[in-house]
Specification:
Number of domains: 2
Order of helices and strands: HEHHEEEHEHEHEEE
Strand order of the largest sheet: 1-3-2
Helix content: 25-40%
Number of helices: 6
Bound molecules: ligand HQG
Protein backbone atom coordinates (compact mmCIF):
# COMPACT_ATOMS: atom_id res chain seq x y z
CA UNK A 1 0.00 0.00 0.00
CA UNK A 2 1.22 3.50 -0.80
CA UNK A 3 2.54 5.13 2.36
CA UNK A 4 1.71 8.62 3.57
CA UNK A 5 5.02 10.13 2.52
CA UNK A 6 4.65 8.82 -1.01
CA UNK A 7 1.08 10.10 -1.17
CA UNK A 8 2.28 13.57 -0.15
CA UNK A 9 5.10 13.50 -2.68
CA UNK A 10 2.80 12.48 -5.50
CA UNK A 11 0.21 15.04 -4.40
CA UNK A 12 2.83 17.80 -4.56
CA UNK A 13 3.91 16.69 -8.01
CA UNK A 14 0.28 16.62 -9.17
CA UNK A 15 -0.18 20.16 -7.82
CA UNK A 16 2.82 21.23 -9.86
CA UNK A 17 1.62 19.75 -13.15
CA UNK A 18 -2.15 20.26 -12.75
CA UNK A 19 -2.03 23.77 -11.28
CA UNK A 20 1.20 25.44 -12.29
CA UNK A 21 3.56 23.87 -14.81
CA UNK A 22 2.05 21.06 -16.91
CA UNK A 23 4.87 21.64 -19.41
CA UNK A 24 7.28 20.08 -16.87
CA UNK A 25 6.19 16.70 -18.21
CA UNK A 26 4.98 17.91 -21.62
CA UNK A 27 1.34 17.98 -20.61
CA UNK A 28 -1.30 20.44 -21.79
CA UNK A 29 -4.40 21.17 -19.77
CA UNK A 30 -7.68 21.05 -21.66
CA UNK A 31 -10.71 23.28 -21.09
CA UNK A 32 -11.56 23.74 -17.40
CA UNK A 33 -8.20 22.31 -16.36
CA UNK A 34 -8.86 18.66 -17.20
CA UNK A 35 -6.35 16.17 -18.59
CA UNK A 36 -6.83 12.58 -19.73
CA UNK A 37 -5.85 10.20 -16.93
CA UNK A 38 -4.14 7.93 -19.42
CA UNK A 39 -2.02 10.80 -20.75
CA UNK A 40 -1.11 11.99 -17.26
CA UNK A 41 0.01 8.50 -16.21
CA UNK A 42 2.03 8.00 -19.39
CA UNK A 43 3.75 11.39 -19.17
CA UNK A 44 4.52 10.97 -15.46
CA UNK A 45 6.08 7.56 -16.10
CA UNK A 46 8.04 8.90 -19.08
CA UNK A 47 9.32 11.62 -16.78
CA UNK A 48 10.50 9.02 -14.27
CA UNK A 49 7.65 9.32 -11.76
CA UNK A 50 6.47 5.74 -11.50
CA UNK A 51 2.75 5.67 -10.97
CA UNK A 52 -0.17 3.45 -11.94
CA UNK A 53 -3.92 4.04 -11.91
CA UNK A 54 -4.43 2.38 -8.53
CA UNK A 55 -1.84 4.66 -6.90
CA UNK A 56 -3.24 7.77 -8.59
CA UNK A 57 -6.74 6.86 -7.41
CA UNK A 58 -5.43 6.30 -3.89
CA UNK A 59 -3.78 9.75 -3.89
CA UNK A 60 -6.92 11.48 -5.19
CA UNK A 61 -9.16 9.74 -2.66
CA UNK A 62 -6.85 10.20 0.32
CA UNK A 63 -5.80 13.78 -0.30
CA UNK A 64 -6.36 15.74 2.89
CA UNK A 65 -7.86 18.71 1.06
CA UNK A 66 -9.52 16.95 -1.87
CA UNK A 67 -7.20 18.89 -4.14
CA UNK A 68 -7.91 16.71 -7.20
CA UNK A 69 -10.95 15.20 -8.82
CA UNK A 70 -11.76 12.68 -11.52
CA UNK A 71 -14.59 13.42 -13.91
CA UNK A 72 -17.71 11.27 -13.78
CA UNK A 73 -16.45 8.38 -15.89
CA UNK A 74 -12.98 8.53 -14.38
CA UNK A 75 -11.21 9.22 -17.67
CA UNK A 76 -10.07 12.71 -16.78
CA UNK A 77 -8.53 14.45 -13.77
CA UNK A 78 -7.96 18.05 -12.63
CA UNK A 79 -7.04 20.17 -9.63
CA UNK A 80 -10.13 21.61 -7.95
CA UNK A 81 -8.49 25.00 -7.29
CA UNK A 82 -5.16 26.64 -6.55
CA UNK A 83 -4.03 27.25 -10.13
CA UNK A 84 -1.54 29.90 -11.11
CA UNK A 85 -2.16 29.08 -14.77
CA UNK A 86 -4.84 31.14 -16.37
CA UNK A 87 -7.54 28.54 -16.51
CA UNK A 88 -11.31 28.83 -16.46
CA UNK A 89 -12.44 26.13 -14.06
CA UNK A 90 -16.01 26.49 -15.23
CA UNK A 91 -17.41 27.05 -11.74
CA UNK A 92 -20.67 28.99 -11.83
CA UNK A 93 -20.83 32.14 -9.73
CA UNK A 94 -22.52 31.49 -6.41
CA UNK A 95 -23.94 33.59 -3.58
CA UNK A 96 -21.39 33.38 -0.77
CA UNK A 97 -22.27 33.05 2.92
CA UNK A 98 -22.43 36.37 4.78
CA UNK A 99 -18.99 35.77 6.27
CA UNK A 100 -15.92 34.00 4.95
CA UNK A 101 -12.42 33.74 6.41
CA UNK A 102 -8.87 34.22 5.19
CA UNK A 103 -5.93 32.79 7.09
CA UNK A 104 -2.62 34.49 6.59
CA UNK A 105 0.60 35.26 8.44
CA UNK A 106 0.76 38.22 10.83
CA UNK A 107 3.69 39.69 8.93
CA UNK A 108 1.48 40.21 5.84
CA UNK A 109 -1.16 42.11 7.76
CA UNK A 110 0.13 45.63 7.28
CA UNK A 111 0.39 45.21 3.54
CA UNK A 112 -3.02 43.50 3.32
CA UNK A 113 -4.66 46.35 5.25
CA UNK A 114 -3.22 48.74 2.66
CA UNK A 115 -4.04 47.01 -0.59
CA UNK A 116 -6.63 44.40 0.36
CA UNK A 117 -6.33 40.69 -0.36
CA UNK A 118 -4.57 40.11 -3.65
CA UNK A 119 -4.39 36.85 -5.53
CA UNK A 120 -0.61 37.05 -5.80
CA UNK A 121 0.67 34.11 -7.84
CA UNK A 122 -2.68 32.29 -7.82
CA UNK A 123 -5.61 32.74 -10.10
CA UNK A 124 -7.96 33.85 -7.32
CA UNK A 125 -7.93 34.99 -3.71
CA UNK A 126 -8.74 31.87 -1.65
CA UNK A 127 -11.21 32.10 1.22
CA UNK A 128 -12.15 29.48 3.79
CA UNK A 129 -15.68 28.68 4.97
CA UNK A 130 -14.63 28.44 8.63
CA UNK A 131 -12.04 29.77 11.07
CA UNK A 132 -10.40 26.41 11.76
CA UNK A 133 -9.55 25.93 8.08
CA UNK A 134 -8.34 29.52 7.80
CA UNK A 135 -5.94 29.00 10.71
CA UNK A 136 -4.47 25.94 8.96
CA UNK A 137 -4.02 27.95 5.75
CA UNK A 138 -2.38 30.82 7.69
CA UNK A 139 0.04 28.48 9.45
CA UNK A 140 1.61 27.62 6.10
CA UNK A 141 3.05 31.14 6.00
CA UNK A 142 4.03 31.79 9.64
CA UNK A 143 2.26 32.95 12.77
CA UNK A 144 -1.36 32.63 11.71
CA UNK A 145 -3.98 35.33 11.88
CA UNK A 146 -7.54 35.14 10.61
CA UNK A 147 -9.27 37.91 8.69
CA UNK A 148 -13.05 38.00 8.48
CA UNK A 149 -14.32 38.80 5.00
CA UNK A 150 -17.71 40.48 4.62
CA UNK A 151 -18.55 38.31 1.64
CA UNK A 152 -22.29 39.00 1.63
CA UNK A 153 -21.69 42.73 1.48
CA UNK A 154 -19.06 42.32 -1.22
CA UNK A 155 -21.45 40.24 -3.26
CA UNK A 156 -24.26 42.81 -2.92
CA UNK A 157 -21.75 45.41 -4.13
CA UNK A 158 -21.19 43.38 -7.29
CA UNK A 159 -18.15 41.21 -6.56
CA UNK A 160 -18.32 37.68 -7.97
CA UNK A 161 -17.69 34.55 -5.93
CA UNK A 162 -17.16 30.92 -6.93
CA UNK A 163 -17.10 27.83 -4.75
CA UNK A 164 -14.68 25.11 -5.80
CA UNK A 165 -15.67 21.44 -5.63
CA UNK A 166 -13.59 21.09 -2.47
CA UNK A 167 -15.30 23.94 -0.61
CA UNK A 168 -12.79 26.75 -1.13
CA UNK A 169 -14.35 30.12 -1.99
CA UNK A 170 -12.69 32.09 -4.77
CA UNK A 171 -12.86 35.75 -5.68
CA UNK A 172 -10.73 38.23 -7.57
CA UNK A 173 -9.73 40.77 -4.93
CA UNK A 174 -10.96 41.74 -1.47
CA UNK A 175 -10.80 45.51 -0.88
CA UNK A 176 -9.79 46.62 2.60
CA UNK A 177 -13.24 47.88 3.56
CA UNK A 178 -14.58 44.30 3.57
CA UNK A 179 -11.84 42.99 5.88
CA UNK A 180 -11.88 42.72 9.65
CA UNK A 181 -9.09 41.45 11.84
CA UNK A 182 -10.19 38.77 14.28
CA UNK A 183 -9.09 39.83 17.70
CA UNK A 184 -9.75 36.73 19.75
C1 LIG B 1 -1.02 36.94 1.14
C2 LIG B 1 -3.66 26.13 -0.04
C3 LIG B 1 0.66 40.93 1.49
C4 LIG B 1 -2.13 35.98 1.48
C5 LIG B 1 -4.57 26.71 1.01
C6 LIG B 1 -1.37 34.67 1.52
C7 LIG B 1 -5.52 27.56 0.23
C8 LIG B 1 -0.86 39.38 0.83
C9 LIG B 1 -0.27 34.87 0.49
C10 LIG B 1 -4.78 27.89 -1.02
C11 LIG B 1 -1.67 40.38 0.23
C12 LIG B 1 -0.51 34.09 -0.78
C13 LIG B 1 -4.40 29.32 -1.09
C14 LIG B 1 -1.23 41.71 0.32
C15 LIG B 1 -2.65 38.49 -0.04
N1 LIG B 1 -0.06 41.95 0.96
N2 LIG B 1 0.29 39.65 1.45
N3 LIG B 1 -1.92 42.73 -0.19
N4 LIG B 1 -2.76 39.80 -0.29
N5 LIG B 1 -1.51 38.22 0.64
O1 LIG B 1 -0.42 30.28 -0.85
O2 LIG B 1 -4.59 31.93 0.44
O3 LIG B 1 -2.41 23.32 0.02
O4 LIG B 1 -0.94 31.88 -2.75
O5 LIG B 1 -2.71 36.29 2.72
O6 LIG B 1 -5.19 25.75 1.78
O7 LIG B 1 -2.44 31.14 1.58
O8 LIG B 1 -2.23 24.60 -2.10
O9 LIG B 1 -2.56 31.69 -0.91
O10 LIG B 1 -0.81 34.45 2.79
O11 LIG B 1 -6.72 26.95 -0.08
O12 LIG B 1 -4.08 22.98 -1.79
O13 LIG B 1 -0.27 36.25 0.16
O14 LIG B 1 -3.61 27.09 -1.02
O15 LIG B 1 -4.15 24.97 -0.54
O16 LIG B 1 -0.31 32.73 -0.49
O17 LIG B 1 -3.61 29.66 0.04
P1 LIG B 1 -0.99 31.58 -1.31
P2 LIG B 1 -3.31 31.16 0.39
P3 LIG B 1 -3.14 23.90 -1.14
Amino acid sequence: MTNKKTVTQISKFLSLVLRHKPETIGLELEANGWVAVETLLRKMNDFGKQIDLATLTHVVENNNKTRFAFNEDGTRIRANQGHSLKIDLGYATKDPPETLFHGTAQRFLESIMESGLEKRSRHHVHLSPDRATAIQVGKRHGKPIVLTVLAGEMHRDGHEFFESDNGVWLTDHVPVRYLHIETK
